[in-house]
Amino acid sequence: MRVRIAIALMCLLGLTALGAIAGPCGGANAMLQDASPAAEATPEAGTPAAEGTPEPATVNVVTLVAWYSQDPSGDFLNLGPLRTNDNFVAGLGEVNDRTLTGDIDFTDEGNDGLPRIVLGDSAFNAYPVVEGDPDSVQRWIYLNDDPGLRPATLVLQIRAVKGPYEGYSGTATFVSRAAEAGGVLVIVLVPPAE
To answer: How does the average pLDDT of the chain come out, rounded?
Structure first.
């Protein structure tokens, strides 16, 4: 064991000495810089890109965030607006006539007994990751791999079947705080491939 530690220390000292001899811009670092093309000036904001320079790719990703809580009936989850305080602690925001609300039914008959999320005018159906295997619909990550502990995370693969995102697909991630204490729902969607 002592021999291994001594060898490791000698290697470390050797690399340190080599770095000191080569300097911050010498040795291998200088060879890499010599082989790299010189950087060009970056155009200022609002300046069009040079001819032949590709424009940055746009990613059409939609992210929806909501607070969920257990309905008093215990049959489904309610969705409402999310708010955070100055310390970024999340909770249910104020519900008024301009906020989106909805619910999540984990055994929705309209989706063959699989989960359906309704948020405002949108409806999202969960579907199996492995076709024909309903057990692959819900993917859980538990604290210490113990299903009885919270926090826990549930991920569903979803497809929008109604509303402004119809045809979009993505994931719905539920991050729970504690049993029956609610949590955060994050839906991330991409448009259908053209």
So the answer is: 78
